[in-house]
Design brief:
The chain has 771 residues and is mainly beta. The protein contains five helices and 45 strands. The longest helix is centred in the N-terminal third of the chain and has 19 residues. GO terms for molecular function: siderophore uptake transmembrane transporter activity. It is a multi-pass membrane protein.
Length: 771
């Protein structure tokens, strides 16, 4: 494009500043008019992010009905929404909206009190938002907006936006919450009970006759998640030798046999007759510590907030569950074995330990500039101060403390800055601002003689790179009696630079790249006066590639370049979006209908599969065109058919397809991977007595395709399956200060898969005290 950031950004800001004073004289509008917001969920608190299209706000009424092991659980019944959470304490919980694939993490903008915690260093399950910087007990509100319909937000809002608002103290206060939970897990030959616990506490103070407030919270979390990976033997295509141990205990998965009979089996996947399962990778022993301080200032005119959050995460996997037994009954988990008259190799049951220390620091200020005009500034940084991943080279070296590898990441993190002016005169609003962000990463892999520490490490590979984005935007909101129009436009200027990949025999540095985009947005909302509201929203969005997609590649075992693992030449994703909403409030029943459409050019997709050794691999490529259309119906029932009974229920029908893929034409017209056609979430809450309430939750998603071509469909490890889960919870309020809760997730013990296994039936008991 011919328009540079300096010219376009300055033009947008100048236009905003020129129009702000002009609107100050538009005093004919109703001074009591308030923004017309369509929100599903709580009604007693304003939404904290700009709502365009479908908007959801969740608060204490919804939270008390959720078994919240972690913060992201609080959203589990939101309409047409899910979080790919494999176990409690999972750091790879990617949120998904509508037709967003469950590993397209870069399509969701997640914030805490307006500070970005989305990990846009990459675009996969490994780059989930940093949910762990917030404990579930400190969440005041979850706001969710579906789609990129506000110009305030970058193109990473292509899927949607989530903002977590934490509690501000209203007076001197304190709380303590403790949890205990257990999951009896039965899969293949693994039979174990995985348990965990957490403790969360905090206190708040507000100055009685002054502007300051302080809130301090901390949480300790410990859990053993179920095994995530099941390992298959590799057929060596020869007869065994006399020196190779004869073993038993390997399993052929009946579900894999069914997939094979239907012609939908994944090649080389564990559990097949050619590759029977011989082990479950170690359960993830998760330990997390979180601490946060928030200092507020509000003198009635100037408002400010400083936030600092620290998160420590230890993931230890040192107990592989090996099924093979030799003639003496000993455990076999490594090496070449003799099984059924043929030679097979057992490998992959390694030991690992990952240690991460991360923190978020943010500062925001808001102050009046003149009558009706407010200036806002928001600065934050997220730093991954330490990320060391140790892995043994084999099961044997894991047991003995022998050789392995170290993946050390750092310096890694991001900076974000937003400056804006907001003007409101009676019902008219005009705003504009400048935003900037910068992301950087550097990952070094080394071979170490003792896998538990870094002493004596020998360099293997290094990948590194940076991106930055500068943006300018303006947005106007114009009410015309029953009709309200919102218009906006955003300009983004993006640059990727400093990227490279170094190995023992490879040294590649990539030239800097730059690109820009102009993204307009429009929304029209009409109130009919009988409790009916209609809204039409249109937008375009551009999501530029992340550091990981561009540069965070890999090398082959001999140190040579693996050109398939990433792509420095990736094009940005560009979407065209539309949403139509129709809402009618009947009093006890509120119905919301939504139709949505999105067409994306150059969709960035990670092609994932098993290699010849049953190990997962992935590579990023552009797909020419994808398209999703869908319909959502949301019902909110209050105090009907009996007082105290509230029901939130929603259903979505989604058609998400690859329209054009010149690199792989066989994918055209096929339902996009991991996107179900049907998704249903519901939550029923009933106040049995003033002190006792109970809830029942439902989560359902129909079985999607596992691959891009619709040829891999199954209900076992490696596939994405149907999900059906019923949850229940009861809360007893003993007095004004003490409560006890008990619950169970997945009551029917449904065994669902998102490549990895979802949790089976899990029991929770919880106690809470407040001052």
């Amino acid at each position: 494009m011919a328009c540079s950031f300096t010219r376009c950004g300055a033009s947008l800001l100048a236009l905003t500043c020129a129009l702000l004073p002009a609107l100050a004289y538009a005093d004919e509008a109703d001074p009591d008019a308030s923004p017309s917001i369509i929100v599903v969920g709580q009604k007693d608190a304003p939404i904290e992010i700009e709502p365009r299209g479908l908007s959801v706000s969740l608060g204490d009424e919804q939270f008390k009905a959720v078994n919240a092991f972690n913060t992201e659980d609080l959203m589990k019944y939101a309409p047409d929404f899910f979080v790919r959470k494999r176990y409690s304490g999972d750091s790879n919980g990617v949120p998904g909206f509508r037709g967003t694939h469950s590993t397209q993490s870069a399509r969701t903008l997640v914030m805490v009190d307006g500070f970005v915690v989305s990990n846009f260093l990459g675009n996969s399950f490994s780059f989930a938002p940093k949910w762990g910087v917030v404990g579930p007990g400190e969440v005041r509100q979850f706001d969710i907006v579906y789609g990129p319909y506000s110009s305030r937000y970058a193109g990473n809002s292509m899927g949607g936006i989530v903002n977590i608002s934490t509690r501000d103290p209203e007076e001197t206060e304190a709380f303590v919450t403790v949890q205990g939970f257990v999951q009896p897990y039965r899969q293949f030959a693994t039979r174990d009970d995985y348990a965990g616990y957490s403790g969360e506490a905090g206190f708040g103070w507000r100055q009685k006759d002054g502007p300051f407030s302080v809130r301090v919270t901390a949480r300790h979390f410990r859990n053993d998640g179920q095994p995530m990976t099941f390992l298959g033997l590799v057929d060596l295509r020869r007869a065994p030798s006399a020196s190779e141990s004869v073993v038993t205990g390997a399993l052929v998965d009946p579900q894999q046999l069914r997939a094979a009979a239907a012609g939908t089996q994944i090649p080389n996947s564990p559990g097949t007759a050619e590759s029977p399962i011989f082990a479950a990778q170690s359960p993830a022993a998760i330990t997390q510590d979180q601490a946060k301080i928030k200092v507020g200032y509000d003198d009635g005119a100037i408002k400010g907030q400083f936030l600092f959050a620290y998160w420590h995460n230890l993931d230890s996997q040192t107990a592989p569950d090996c099924y093979l037994r030799n003639a003496a009954g000993g455990i076999v988990c490594d090496g070449v074995v003799s099984l059924g008259g043929k030679a097979d190799r057992a490998s992959g049951a390694v030991y690992s330990r990952t240690i991460r220390d991360e923190y978020l620091a943010g500062l925001k200020l808001a102050a009046p500039v003149s009558d009706g005009l407010t200036a806002r500034l928001n600065l934050s940084t997220y730093q991954i101060a330490k990320s060391d991943g140790y892995t043994s080279s084999s099961y044997t070296t894991g047991q003995t403390g022998g050789a392995g590898t170290l993946a050390r990441q750092g310096p890694t993190g991001w900076l974000t800055a937003d400056a804006m002016l907001e003007g409101k005169w009676r019902a008219f609003e005009l705003s504009g601002g400048l935003t900037a962000n910068r992301y950087w990463t550097d990952l070094v892999r080394s071979n170490v003689p003792h896998w538990r520490d870094d002493a004596g490490g020998v360099f293997s590979t290094r990948t590194f790179g940076r991106t930055r984005q500068l943006s300018a935007w303006t947005e106007a909101r114009l009410p015309l009696d029953a009709l309200t129009l919102t218009l906006g436009v955003r300009y983004d200027n993006w640059r990727a630079f400093g990227g490279g990949l170094i190995g023992t025999v490879t040294d590649r540095r990539y030239p800097a790249r730059k690109d820009d985009a102009v993204s307009p947005a429009f929304s029209a909302e009409y109130r009919f006066g009988d409790g009916t509201v209609a809204q039409v929203s249109l937008a375009t969005a551009t999501r530029f590639p992340t550091v990981g997609e561009l540069f965070q590649g890999s090398l082959n075992g001999d140190g040579t370049f693996n050109a398939q693992s990433f792509d420095p030449g990736l094009k940005p994703e560009r979407s065209h979006d539309a949403n139509v909403l129709l809402v009618h409030d009947f009093g006890t029943l509120k119905l919301t209908g939504s139709l949505f459409y999105q067409r994306v050019k150059d969709t960035v997709f990670s092609f994932t599969g098993f290699n010849q050794n049953g190990v997962t691999t992935s590579s990023f490529k552009n797909i020419d065109r994808t398209r999703q259309i869908g319909a959502e119906l949301i019902a909110e029932v209050r105090d009907w058919p009996v007082d105290g009974l509230n029901i939130d229920a929603n259903a979505a029908l989604i058609d998400s397809k690859t329209i054009r893929n010149r690199a792989a034409p066989a994918a055209e017209g096929v339902q996009f991977p991991r996107i179900p056609r049907w998704r249903i979430n519901a939550n029923l809450r009933y106040a049995i007595t003033p002190a006792l309430d109970a809830s029942l939750g439902l989560r359902y998603a129909s079985r999607p395709n596992t691959d891009l071509f619709g040829k891999q469909r199954g209900d076992t490890f490696g596939y994405t399956s149907e999900l059906f889960a019923l949850d229940a919870r009861a809360n007893w309020k003993w007095n004004e200060h003490f409560r006890v809760s008990a619950g169970v997730d997945n009551i029917t013990n449904d065994r669902a898969w998102v490549f990895h296994p979802y949790p089976q039936r899990t029991f929770l008991i919880e106690a809470g005290w407040t001052l």
